[in-house]
Every structure is written in C-alpha cells, then in structure tokens.
Specification:
single chain; alpha+beta; 4-stranded antiparallel β-sheet; globular; cNMP-bd_dom_sf; cNMP-bd_dom
Length: 154
C-alpha cells in the first residue's frame, strides 16, 4: 500500500466537501479492468473498500503489478495532465467500492478556485512521485540483472 496521503488527509475539509459533492459511488467486481494503459483518462477514483492493482504493459510479457492500492487511495492521476492518457493500467484485485470523479468537472473546479487547484495539484503530484518510484523499483526488481540494487550507490 502507498505511503502518500489520502485525499482526506491532503485536502482541508472545505475542499474535500466540494469535491465529494460531485462524487458518485461505483463498484467493480474482482478481476474487472478499470482502465487500460494508453486509454483516455476522463475520471479518477478514491477507494472506499477493496484493492486495485496498478500494472504496466510490457511487450511480449504479462503485465507486471507495479503497486496495490487500498482504502482512501487515489486510483488514476493521468486525468490531471494533458494529453489525459492513462500511464498505467488498473484492475480490481478484490471487489471494490469507490467514489468516482469526473475529471473535466474537477479540472474546471480547480481552474475556478486556484487554492483548490494548488492543493489538488500538490496532492496528485505527491501520488505521482510515489507511483513513479514504485514503478522504477518494481521494474528493476523484475528486469535488472541484480534486482533493484537497494543499497548499491552510484
């Protein structure tokens, strides 16, 4: 599970409440592909229950799991940055209940309220930095000749 702050901890109550007013509850059965790497990123989710595995397409191989997400975590960050294309894939590892957000509506809210925009950008940026590090470490573990090299200095 991630060590990035969930939305509930990253945003002040007034901003969380504004965002939650446009959320809709959704569920995904275990094994459901939520989105595919390279697809159009037009929404995102905050997990209420269950777990989601992020994976990455590797030509000629099974997609390796990059990270597993759970309660309170953000699923999807590509909705915030043009060209709004998923950089990873996501599949429900177990039955998932989540809050779903329309990306365009949230981007418009952020444009309309610069304080909200800055906070959302900072939150998603922290999630992004963590996910990129997780992807790097996982791919090194899978494909580098000596693993991730934890402890090896360059």
């Amino acid at each position: 599970m991630s060590n990035t702050p969930p939305m509930m901890a990253a945003l002040p109550a007034e901003h969380r409440e504004r965002l939650m007013r446009i959320a809709r509850q959704v569920s995904f059965p275990s094994g459901t592909r939520i989105f595919e790497e390279g697809g159009h990123a037009d929404r995102f989710w905050i997990i209420r229950t269950g777990s989601v595995v992020l994976d990455m397409h590797v030509p000629g191989r099974r997609s390796p799991a990059i990270e597993t997400l759970g309660h309170g975590e953000l699923v999807g960050w590509s909705w915030l940055f043009p060209p709004y294309v998923w950089q990873l894939g996501a599949v429900a590892q177990s039955p998932v209940r989540a809050e779903e957000f329309d990306a365009l509506a949230v981007r418009l809210m952020c444009e309309d309220d610069p304080a909200l925009g800055a906070l959302v950008g900072h939150w998603v940026g922290r999630v992004l930095a963590h996910r990129l590090q997780s992807a790097r470490t996982r791919l090194l573990d899978l494909y580098a000749p000596y693993g991730s090299g934890e402890g090896v200095r360059r």
